[in-house]
């Protein structure tokens, strides 16, 4: 069985791969494979305690769209991280190093997929509202992620404690407690919202990657 250090090294290679001309889709898929491997590995309290913490900025700006915040919070929760907005306008993930990397890659993939599908949709619906479409997408992805979280909540560390709870405590001890404000959203374009929602439900979260890419990450 691979050690936590080996898993983190694989994720670091993955992140380096994602920075070049590679596919964001394949990068995110590989990240989720590492996420699954880390979950399946029976981590002990000692393993978690010696893990490094990290912060990674994913967006900069005083005004951030609601759909982006919603999507980021969902991705953070799936990967045992915190999504934080600083006073300087930085949006960032905070948590254990490997979890932050996986969250960053997953968010990158989802945003790229969203923008690509929005561009395709607006070619046929030139008057469609972009915010409505993107919020519909984010809501759909959020629902799917919450289902995935419920499955992960059954995971246990080797000491019998919930893996998610153990990691949450560590992250909160390092960065403090984060409470998210769940604001409602009223669509200005229900047709675009529904189209975005359908796009989000169809977006691959467990697609397959090429054999060449898989081999490079599993070596």
Give the key terms.
219 residues; mainly alpha; 9 helices; globular
Structural class: mainly alpha
The coarse overall form would be globular
Order of SSEs: HHHEHEEHHHHH
Biggest sheet descriptor: 3 strands, antiparallel
Distance separating the two termini: 13 Å
Cross-sheet strand order for the largest sheet: 1-3-2
Which runs of at least 5 residues are low in confidence (pLDDT < 50)? 207-219
Radius of gyration, Cα only, in angstroms? 18 Å
The helical percent reads 55-70%
Q: Count all strands and give the number.
A: 3
Percentage of residues in DSSP E strands = 5-15%
Report mean pLDDT, rounded to a whole number: 78
Domain count: the total is 1
Number of helices: 9
Could you characterize the architecture of this molecule?
This protein is mainly alpha-helical and 219 residues long. It has one domain. It has helices at 4-19, 24-40, 45-49, 66-78, 97-124, 130-152, 163-175, 190-202, 211-218; strands at residues 53-60, 82-85, 90-96. It has a three-stranded antiparallel beta sheet with strand order 1-3-2. Mean pLDDT is 78; it is low at 207-219.
Write the layout of secondary structure elements.
Layout: H1 4-19, H2 24-40, H3 45-49, E1 53-60, H4 66-78, E2 82-85, E3 90-96, H5 97-124, H6 130-152, H7 163-175, H8 190-202, H9 211-218
Antiparallel strand pairs: 1-3, 2-3
């Amino acid at each position: 069985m691979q050690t936590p250090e080996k898993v983190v090294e694989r994720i670091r290679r993955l992140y380096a791969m994602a920075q070049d001309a590679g596919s964001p889709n394949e990068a995110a898929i590989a990240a989720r494979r590492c996420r699954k491997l880390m979950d399946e590995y029976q981590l002990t309290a000692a393993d978690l305690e010696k893990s490094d913490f990290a912060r990674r900025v994913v967006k900069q700006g005083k005004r951030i769209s609601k759909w982006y915040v919603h999507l980021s919070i969902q991705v953070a929760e799936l990967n045992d991280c915190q999504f934080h907005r600083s006073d300087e306008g930085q949006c960032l993930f905070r948590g254990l190093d490997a979890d932050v990397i996986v969250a960053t890659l997953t968010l990158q993939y989802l945003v790229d997929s969203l923008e690509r599908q929005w561009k395709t949709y607006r070619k046929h619906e030139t008057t469609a509202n972009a915010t409505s479409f993107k919020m519909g997408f984010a809501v759909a992805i959020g629902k799917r992620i919450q289902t995935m979280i419920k499955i992960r909540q059954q995971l246990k560390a080797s000491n019998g404690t919930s893996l998610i709870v153990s990691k949450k405590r560590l992250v909160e001890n390092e960065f403090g407690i984060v409470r998210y404000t769940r604001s409602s959203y009223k669509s200005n374009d229900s047709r675009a919202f529904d189209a975005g929602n359908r796009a989000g439900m169809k977006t691959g979260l467990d697609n397959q990657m090429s054999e060449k890419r898989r081999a490079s990450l599993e070596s």
